[in-house]
Amino acid sequence: MPEEMIMVVSNMPNTEVAQKIARDLVEKQLAACVNILPGVHSIYRWQGAVEEASEVTVLIKTRRIRYALVEAAIQALHPYEVPEILALPISGGLPAYLNWMVECTS
């Protein structure tokens, strides 16, 4: 794989925020594709208390070289004080799809 590809995972408070951020990332060519997965129930510790929330998970496909810009774009639009933004390596995939990802984020 000539380019190092990653999937960035983030949770959003609702579908509207997820769609806004997803569209921004794709329009700016920071992501080839963003999947929006509604119906996530999260349990987490925040400021010393155990919290629960309904959230929307997004899966953002991009290149590692674009990560800093993706992170900055999410932070600029995300309403959470500390949004979840995790980058996971993509170790393989259909070559045509990976090439398409590169084309869409160039």
Q: What's the β-strand tally?
A: 4
CATH architect. name: 2-Layer Sandwich
CATH topology: Alpha-Beta Plaits
Helical residue percent?
25-40%
Task: Please write the CATH class name.
Answer: Alpha Beta
Element order, helices and strands?
A: EHEEHEH
Oligomer: single chain
Q: How many alpha or pi helices?
A: 3
Mean pLDDT: 95
Give the strand order of the largest sheet, numbering strands 1, 2, ... along the chain: 2-3-1-4
Tell me the major beta sheet: 4 strands, antiparallel
Name the beta content range.
35-45%
Poorly predicted runs are: none
What is the domain tally?
A: 1
Shape: elongated
Radius of gyration: 14 Å
Distance between the termini: 16 Å
Structural class estimated from helices and strands: alpha+beta
Explain this structure.
There is one protein chain. By secondary structure, the protein is an alpha+beta fold. A four-stranded antiparallel beta sheet has the order 2-3-1-4. The longest helix has 13 residues, at 15-27. Strand 2 and strand 3 form a beta hairpin. It contains three helices and four strands. It has one domain (5-104): Alpha-Beta Plaits (2-Layer Sandwich). Helix 1 (15-27) packs antiparallel against helix 2. The mean pLDDT is 95.
